[in-house]
Amino acid sequence: MTLKPKRRLAAIFVADVFEFSRMMAEDEAGTLERILDQQKTVIAPEIERHDGRVIKLMGDGVLAVFPSVISAVEAAAVIQRRVNNVAASKRLKLRIGLNLGEVMIAERDIYGDGVNVASRIEALAPPGGVALSASAHEQVRNKIPYAFEDFGTHTVKNIPDPVQVYLLGQELTSIPKTLPPKVAKSAQATLVQRPLIWASSAVLVLAAVLGAWLLPSLAPWGNPTAESAATQVELGPSRIVVRAFTDSQDTGLAVGLAEGVIAELAQRPDLVVIAPHSSFARPEISDQSIAAQLGADFVISGRVEGRTGLGVALDILDLSGSQQDYLRLPAQPQQDMLSLQAAVVRDLLKNLPSPNNDASSGVPIPTTQNANAYKHLIQARSYLWADNQIEAKQALQNALVLDPAMGEARGLLAMAHMDLFSGALSGQQQRITEAQLMLSSPPFSRQEQQVAIVAALNDDEGETALAQAQDMVATYPNYADGYATLAWVLTFRGEQEQATEALKTANQLNPLAPAFYHAIEAELLFLVGKDEAALTAADQAIAMDPSTQRARLFRVAALANDGAFDDAAAELRILTERDRNLGLSEVTDLVPYSDPAAAQRILTGLRLAGLNGNP
């Protein structure tokens, strides 16, 4: 059984490349390469950044939807500005059309006259411009500081009535470089008004354990108010990407060392440092392309080199001004990994536009003073990024032999043992209990704190879990996984609005969200009755990690509750083939929601799909 079409009001975005056919005839391979790069590095990231969702890419075109026309106009303006600023030899001029209309949603696509009108209006836009329908213009008129030109009425193909068209004015070339909106000062208690900073390898280990692929996070379908759209974290003066270091000496330390540098830089409240999970993605593309995709002002790359002592030669690409210049810093060989990481951080702090350039200020003391133990931890991080879990586990154990109190090593091993989202659901409670025994006392590292929070949930200590999660984000206010964990705890407690905001912050901190963020999103959306949006989020998690059991669990329930019983039963077979001991009683233990009706909703869906046992 397939899902029947549903109708929604949406801001519809259609774009295509001007003179596509002519350019393909002249240079087919080169044109296609530029189109794909533009879609991946400019169009899709800006649509996502403005809360839109890409429905499909159509060769030279893009179809997307937004929950508000204002968001769609702002995204279109930024896309055109960025495209128009590309060098003329590489420029692909776009035409963009926007319409507010009703669409039918079916099979992950949208249909209806609203889509047709947007497509016809797009064809009327000038190259490099944006055209709006009257219904779209009415929603933004006098609400945003953009000028619009009345382009008159036009008769267009397959649309019975003439269409009134408005063109966006000079803002396409004059608007400032945009960043996500700022959080209101009153929201500081929940979303701390400080830079978005990454400071841990927890997502890396979970990405390795879950097999997550690096795909952009797409906003859930919804209809947020202007107030909720504004509750975003305020960014600091500069966004920094530290790419995975390369290694001329084949030491196996380069990636782990880069992550350690990020962790130290991320402690600075006056810098914005993109998460390793996002900044290490797509090593094959240029610094300029990754900067465009992640909205960075500075891109840092490094090469580990040296014979008598290792050093890191640094390249800092400055994109913050009109010029795009590299600053190159030679390697300064050091005697051990702790000294090397500290030297790299000092060099960067001296050359990044931080309001406080005192290299010693704000840089934390590493979690160990044992240089050999820290070297094993760096090796473990590198192994995890390469998805070499056996070697990573051995390196973590080697680190703990030399320094039994190293909290990050203990936390990473415990998190891998829990395997919350990909491991068998029927044995999860036992694994959580065992993971808790692996922690130091008290848990000091962020990774250990996450395990302790999950263990509190497992023991039905929701108040304790919430207090610990809130303490974690207060202590590490720029920790993406900390906010994802807080969102999960809030979901269990039925505080869905706060959970949504916390998860939004996690996605801002880690722009290319891992699979388990989508799994949490699927659970959250299912519990508030948004089954179709929950299916979309679960599909994203499963596409990134086909083994993600928890996301599949909620996909089964959402399909069944929506009447797609055959599809739900087929999905349940996949779930139970991997976990033959799974029954309703095991699921009951996995959903200790404070609201009994929430647990009942998933149990009902699973019963309808055919899951047996007594809850």
Which helices and strands, and how do they pair?
Layout: E1 6-17, H1 20-26, H2 28-49, E2 53-58, E3 61-66, H3 69-84, E4 94-106, E5 109-111, H4 113-124, E6 130-133, H5 134-140, E7 148-154, E8 163-168, H6 171-174, H7 202-210, H8 226-230, E9 239-242, E10 246-247, H9 254-265, E11 272-273, H10 276-279, H11 287-294, E12 298-305, E13 311-318, E14 325-329, H12 337-351, H13 371-385, H14 389-402, H15 407-418, H16 428-436, H17 446-458, H18 462-475, H19 480-492, H20 496-509, H21 515-527, H22 531-544, H23 549-561, H24 565-578, H25 584-590, H26 596-609
Parallel strand pairs: 4-6, 9-11, 9-12, 10-12
Antiparallel strand pairs: 1-3, 1-4, 2-3, 4-5, 6-8, 7-8, 12-13, 13-14
Please explain how this structure is put together:
- This protein is an alpha/beta fold and 615 residues long.
- Helix content is 49%, strand content 14%.
- It has helices spanning 20-26, 28-49, 69-84, 113-124, 134-140, 171-174, 202-210, 226-230, 254-265, 276-279, 287-294, 337-351, 371-385, 389-402, 407-418, 428-436, 446-458, 462-475, 480-492, 496-509, 515-527, 531-544, 549-561, 565-578, 584-590, 596-609; strands at residues 6-17, 53-58, 61-66, 94-106, 109-111, 130-133, 148-154, 163-168, 239-242, 246-247, 272-273, 298-305, 311-318, 325-329.
- The chain has 26 helices and 14 strands.
- The protein is globular.
Using brief descriptors, characterize the structure shown:
615 residues; alpha/beta; 6-stranded mixed beta sheet; 26 helices; 49% helix; 14% strand
Count the E strands. 14
Q: What does the average pLDDT come to?
A: 79
| Alpha-beta content class | alpha/beta
Straight-line N-to-C gap: 27 Å
Low-confidence stretches: 173-236, 359-365
Main beta-sheet strand count, sense and barrel state: 8 strands, mixed
Strand content: 5-15%
